[in-house]
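Internal ticket - ligand job 169, protoporphyrin IX containing FE:
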Amino acid sequence: MLFADYAGWNGFLGTRGSFMLDLLFLAMFAVLPVMGWSIYLVKYRKNYSLHKRVQLTLAVILLLSVLLFEVDMRLSSTKWTERAEPSPYFTPDVWCGAKYALMIHLLFAIPTPLLWIYTIVKALRNFPSPPVPSDYSGQHIKTARLAAMGMVLTAVTGWCFYWMAFVAT
Ligand code: HEM
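stdout (structure tokens):
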């Protein structure tokens, strides 16, 4: 059942996803290349100021998306489980493929924003402004690589869950 008509805000991708689910699904496609570009800027172009600005902008966009998403999940008249019902990976009231996929996704989606906040707060406190490499570089590179990997895994596991719950028929 594609372009399904549920109560509340339906998505625009032609799946059973809600408007906010579709928006986040697409936002992750934009975030990953922008983050890759920001890391390229710092690693190969030594453009530390632009790296800082791009990372801060991404963080604000991501934080706003997560907030809107939470509001949507809690206030929406149609729960995600209702939208997932036609999926062969979903069975109500028992553990099923879609719920396992959601758990795996949450394993990355919950710690990653916290890791981003930690990485940003520490970077802002420890690098000079405008930012240049310092004694703090080694520590930043370690946590920032983890934060970036967390974002990639959040996106990939999110897309898998989205497909299993809201696309598969
Ligand atoms: C979550 C946000 C951030 C992520 C994911 C991130 C990611 C990275 C990564 C992966 C590198 C290492 C590139 C390499 O392999 O050489 C790096 C380097 C760097 N970042 Fe960030 N960054 C973030 C936020 C920031 C902020 C807010 C600042 C400035 C206040 C900053 C300043 C720097 C600087 C100066 C370097 C160069 C370190 C050096 O090579 O000595 N970063 N960042």
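Auto-summary: The pocket of protoporphyrin IX containing FE is lined by residues 39, 42-43, 48, 51-52, 55-56, 116, 119-120, 123-124, 127, 131, 133, 137, 140-141, 144-145, 147-148 (CB under 6 Å). The mean pLDDT is 94.
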